[in-house]
Amino acid sequence: MTDISTTEPWEQWWELLPQGIREQVDGYVLQDALMPAIRAVWEAGQAHGVGLQEAQLVVHERYSHHGDRIARTPDNPLDLDSLGARAAGAPGRVVAIEVVWDGDTVHDWFVILYAVTADPEGEQALATVYRHTAQRHLDGTDPALHHPCAAVADKVGRALAARLSVPFHFASPDTPDDEAPRLRPS
Protein backbone atom coordinates (compact mmCIF):
# COMPACT_ATOMS: atom_id res chain seq x y z
CA MET A 1 0.00 0.00 0.00
CA THR A 2 1.08 3.58 -0.64
CA ASP A 3 2.47 5.74 2.20
CA ILE A 4 -0.44 8.15 2.82
CA SER A 5 1.83 10.92 4.12
CA THR A 6 3.48 11.31 0.69
CA THR A 7 0.46 11.03 -1.60
CA GLU A 8 -1.86 13.55 -3.16
CA PRO A 9 -5.50 13.48 -1.98
CA TRP A 10 -6.68 12.05 -5.29
CA GLU A 11 -4.21 9.17 -4.91
CA GLN A 12 -5.63 8.39 -1.47
CA TRP A 13 -9.18 8.33 -2.89
CA TRP A 14 -7.98 6.14 -5.78
CA GLU A 15 -6.39 3.65 -3.36
CA LEU A 16 -9.63 3.43 -1.35
CA LEU A 17 -11.47 2.05 -4.39
CA PRO A 18 -11.61 -1.72 -4.88
CA GLN A 19 -9.36 -3.10 -7.63
CA GLY A 20 -12.35 -4.01 -9.81
CA ILE A 21 -13.69 -0.46 -9.66
CA ARG A 22 -10.25 0.96 -10.50
CA GLU A 23 -10.06 -1.34 -13.53
CA GLN A 24 -13.57 -0.30 -14.60
CA VAL A 25 -12.71 3.40 -14.24
CA ASP A 26 -9.52 3.00 -16.26
CA GLY A 27 -11.52 1.13 -18.91
CA TYR A 28 -13.97 4.02 -19.13
CA VAL A 29 -11.13 6.54 -19.26
CA LEU A 30 -9.36 4.65 -22.06
CA GLN A 31 -12.64 4.75 -24.01
CA ASP A 32 -12.99 8.50 -23.31
CA ALA A 33 -16.21 7.82 -21.38
CA LEU A 34 -15.80 10.61 -18.85
CA MET A 35 -19.22 10.62 -17.18
CA PRO A 36 -19.41 6.84 -16.56
CA ALA A 37 -15.89 6.98 -15.08
CA ILE A 38 -16.85 9.79 -12.70
CA ARG A 39 -20.03 8.00 -11.72
CA ALA A 40 -18.15 4.76 -10.97
CA VAL A 41 -15.66 6.58 -8.69
CA TRP A 42 -18.39 8.58 -6.99
CA GLU A 43 -20.72 5.63 -6.34
CA ALA A 44 -17.97 3.34 -5.05
CA GLY A 45 -16.22 6.05 -3.06
CA GLN A 46 -19.18 7.57 -1.22
CA ALA A 47 -18.66 5.29 1.76
CA HIS A 48 -15.14 6.75 2.10
CA GLY A 49 -16.17 10.41 1.78
CA VAL A 50 -15.49 10.69 -1.94
CA GLY A 51 -17.92 13.27 -3.26
CA LEU A 52 -18.62 14.35 -6.81
CA GLN A 53 -15.79 16.91 -6.91
CA GLU A 54 -13.31 14.37 -5.59
CA ALA A 55 -14.51 11.83 -8.15
CA GLN A 56 -13.97 14.38 -10.92
CA LEU A 57 -10.45 15.04 -9.67
CA VAL A 58 -9.62 11.33 -9.53
CA VAL A 59 -10.86 10.80 -13.09
CA HIS A 60 -9.02 13.90 -14.31
CA GLU A 61 -5.81 12.44 -12.90
CA ARG A 62 -6.53 9.07 -14.56
CA TYR A 63 -6.93 10.91 -17.88
CA SER A 64 -3.54 12.55 -17.26
CA HIS A 65 -2.04 9.18 -16.35
CA HIS A 66 -3.23 7.46 -19.54
CA GLY A 67 -2.56 10.44 -21.84
CA ASP A 68 -2.19 9.46 -25.49
CA ARG A 69 -3.49 5.93 -24.89
CA ILE A 70 -7.05 7.28 -24.61
CA ALA A 71 -9.23 6.64 -27.67
CA ARG A 72 -10.56 10.18 -27.88
CA THR A 73 -14.07 10.82 -29.14
CA PRO A 74 -13.63 12.55 -32.50
CA ASP A 75 -14.68 16.16 -32.89
CA ASN A 76 -17.58 17.02 -35.17
CA PRO A 77 -16.37 18.17 -38.58
CA LEU A 78 -16.63 21.90 -39.18
CA ASP A 79 -15.82 22.08 -42.88
CA LEU A 80 -18.57 23.37 -45.17
CA ASP A 81 -18.83 20.20 -47.24
CA SER A 82 -19.44 18.03 -44.14
CA LEU A 83 -21.86 20.51 -42.58
CA GLY A 84 -23.69 20.82 -45.89
CA ALA A 85 -23.99 17.04 -46.14
CA ARG A 86 -25.41 16.86 -42.63
CA ALA A 87 -27.87 19.66 -43.38
CA ALA A 88 -28.95 17.85 -46.55
CA GLY A 89 -29.84 14.86 -44.36
CA ALA A 90 -32.20 16.90 -42.17
CA PRO A 91 -35.79 15.60 -42.10
CA GLY A 92 -37.32 18.66 -43.71
CA ARG A 93 -36.51 21.73 -45.75
CA VAL A 94 -33.67 23.74 -44.17
CA VAL A 95 -34.93 27.28 -43.59
CA ALA A 96 -32.15 28.67 -41.35
CA ILE A 97 -28.88 27.91 -39.61
CA GLU A 98 -28.83 28.63 -35.88
CA VAL A 99 -26.20 28.57 -33.13
CA VAL A 100 -27.33 27.85 -29.57
CA TRP A 101 -25.34 27.92 -26.32
CA ASP A 102 -25.27 24.96 -23.95
CA GLY A 103 -23.02 23.94 -21.11
CA ASP A 104 -22.23 21.30 -18.56
CA THR A 105 -19.79 20.60 -15.75
CA VAL A 106 -17.47 18.65 -18.04
CA HIS A 107 -17.10 20.97 -21.04
CA ASP A 108 -18.09 24.33 -19.54
CA TRP A 109 -19.80 26.44 -22.24
CA PHE A 110 -20.10 25.14 -25.80
CA VAL A 111 -22.34 25.79 -28.79
CA ILE A 112 -24.45 23.61 -31.06
CA LEU A 113 -24.92 24.43 -34.72
CA TYR A 114 -28.41 23.52 -35.95
CA ALA A 115 -30.20 23.34 -39.27
CA VAL A 116 -33.69 24.68 -38.57
CA THR A 117 -36.29 22.94 -40.72
CA ALA A 118 -39.84 23.34 -41.95
CA ASP A 119 -42.09 20.65 -43.43
CA PRO A 120 -41.69 19.11 -40.85
CA GLU A 121 -40.80 21.84 -38.37
CA GLY A 122 -37.79 20.96 -36.26
CA GLU A 123 -34.04 21.11 -36.05
CA GLN A 124 -31.11 18.90 -36.92
CA ALA A 125 -27.91 19.18 -34.88
CA LEU A 126 -25.03 19.59 -37.31
CA ALA A 127 -22.08 20.01 -34.95
CA THR A 128 -21.21 20.62 -31.33
CA VAL A 129 -18.30 23.01 -30.87
CA TYR A 130 -16.42 22.56 -27.60
CA ARG A 131 -13.64 24.91 -26.46
CA HIS A 132 -10.86 22.45 -27.37
CA THR A 133 -12.35 21.97 -30.84
CA ALA A 134 -12.66 25.72 -31.33
CA GLN A 135 -9.10 26.38 -30.22
CA ARG A 136 -7.77 23.81 -32.69
CA HIS A 137 -9.96 25.28 -35.43
CA LEU A 138 -8.75 28.82 -34.66
CA ASP A 139 -5.16 27.55 -34.93
CA GLY A 140 -3.71 30.17 -32.61
CA THR A 141 -5.65 33.17 -33.89
CA ASP A 142 -7.24 35.32 -31.21
CA PRO A 143 -11.06 35.36 -31.32
CA ALA A 144 -10.89 38.90 -29.86
CA LEU A 145 -13.92 39.56 -27.66
CA HIS A 146 -15.75 36.34 -28.51
CA HIS A 147 -15.65 33.03 -26.68
CA PRO A 148 -13.65 30.67 -28.95
CA CYS A 149 -16.69 28.43 -29.47
CA ALA A 150 -18.82 31.39 -30.50
CA ALA A 151 -16.18 32.75 -32.86
CA VAL A 152 -15.85 29.44 -34.71
CA ALA A 153 -19.58 28.68 -34.81
CA ASP A 154 -20.36 32.20 -36.00
CA LYS A 155 -17.85 31.90 -38.82
CA VAL A 156 -18.83 28.44 -40.06
CA GLY A 157 -22.55 29.02 -39.41
CA ARG A 158 -22.60 32.20 -41.48
CA ALA A 159 -20.68 30.50 -44.28
CA LEU A 160 -23.04 27.51 -44.27
CA ALA A 161 -26.12 29.74 -44.24
CA ALA A 162 -24.73 31.68 -47.21
CA ARG A 163 -24.02 28.44 -49.06
CA LEU A 164 -27.58 27.22 -48.42
CA SER A 165 -29.10 30.69 -49.08
CA VAL A 166 -30.91 30.73 -45.73
CA PRO A 167 -30.82 33.14 -42.76
CA PHE A 168 -28.30 32.76 -39.95
CA HIS A 169 -29.30 33.24 -36.29
CA PHE A 170 -27.08 33.45 -33.19
CA ALA A 171 -29.00 35.24 -30.44
CA SER A 172 -26.07 35.70 -28.06
CA PRO A 173 -22.68 35.59 -29.83
CA ASP A 174 -20.93 37.76 -27.23
CA THR A 175 -22.10 36.10 -24.00
CA PRO A 176 -22.90 32.47 -23.21
CA ASP A 177 -26.65 32.30 -22.64
CA ASP A 178 -28.52 29.00 -22.87
CA GLU A 179 -31.84 30.85 -22.49
CA ALA A 180 -31.36 33.25 -25.43
CA PRO A 181 -34.36 33.48 -27.77
CA ARG A 182 -34.53 30.68 -30.32
CA LEU A 183 -35.44 30.98 -33.98
CA ARG A 184 -38.59 29.21 -35.07
CA PRO A 185 -39.58 28.66 -38.68
CA SER A 186 -42.57 30.66 -39.85
Features:
186 residues; four-stranded mixed β-sheet; alpha+beta; 2 domains; 18% strand; elongated; 7 helices
In short:
This protein is an alpha+beta fold and 186 residues long. It is built from 7 helices and 4 strands, in the order αααααβββααβ. The protein has a 4-stranded mixed sheet.
Description:
This protein has seven helices and four strands, in the order H-H-H-H-H-E-E-E-H-H-E. By secondary structure, the chain is α+β, with helices and mostly antiparallel strands. It has two domains: about 5-70, no CATH class; about 80-170, no CATH class. The termini are far apart. The mean pLDDT is about 90.
What's the helix and strand layout?
Layout (H helix, E strand, L loop, with lengths): L8 H8 L2 H12 L3 H12 L6 H15 L13 H9 L4 E12 L3 E11 L3 E8 L1 H8 L9 H17 L3 E3 L16
Parallel strand pairs: 1-4
Antiparallel strand pairs: 1-2, 2-3
Helix pairs in contact: 1-4, 2-3, 2-4, 3-4, 6-7
Largest sheet: 4 strands, mixed
Radius of gyration: 21 Å
Strand/helix succession = HHHHHEEEHHE
Q: Classify the helix fraction into a percent range.
A: 40-55%
Task: Estimate nothing, just give the exact number of structural domains.
Answer: 2
Report the average pLDDT across residues: 89
What structural class do the secondary elements suggest?
alpha+beta
Put simply, the count of helices is 7
Show unreliable segments: none
Separation, N- and C-terminal Cα atoms: 66 Å
